[in-house]
Amino acid sequence: MTKKSKTWQIITNKLEVQESLGKALELECQIHGTRTKVQTEADFKKVPEGGCNKLCDTLLPCTHKCQRVCHVIDREHKAYKCRLPCLKFCDNSPTAHPCKGKCFEKCPPCSVKIEKTLNCELRHKRKLPCHKKVDEIICSEPMEKTLPCRHKEVLACHIRVYEYECKIKVRKELPCGHSREMLCHVDPMTIRCKEMTIKRLSCQHSDTIECWMDPDNVKCQAMVTKNFPKCGHKVIRVILDKLNKI
To answer: What distances in angstroms separate CA 107 from CA 89, 90, 101, 155, 197, one per listed residue?
Structure first.
């Protein structure tokens, strides 16, 4: 390099005159006063941040000490990010928990599970992350409840009995007088009775049809004898060909 660079040639000449030219260059740390001799490229790795190989160890505002090797740049540590464990505690419970994040990070929600009392009628308890508010929790604790119909069901705590449809099967009387098995919450007024009953049709014949059907709308299937009006011959035929089911 000295042969190709005029600048280094001038520096070399001056050092030779002063008898200061040697095999190594001695660097002095401006911070610790430590001296380091560098002779090869590998020697510069002893002072990677331009100071020396000691820890910076400067006390930071977070009360940790700087973990970098002695550095010349950013001496005020404005750009430095402390990666040691955070020293803060959560304030969501009487028992403060230490933050699990890094010191430079914004503290994450505290995830330590603690026992909390829910805002349900029976004040059930559940283990929840410390940051979780009980107002956000729907209590699903199973418990036996008495419904308005007097049946008992095991339901989640948050389910109100007046909003729950009882699914126990019972036998109820229909408006027609017949009875039928159905779910307890079903209104019998909404059920079509399918019991087969004998009813008199509008033609005065009787037929076996489902109870809910109107006999005036049913087509009679009875076989009768009729005369042809012109020839007077008799024929046996169905008055109407089929039921008109609704």
So the answer is: 9, 9, 6, 39, 77
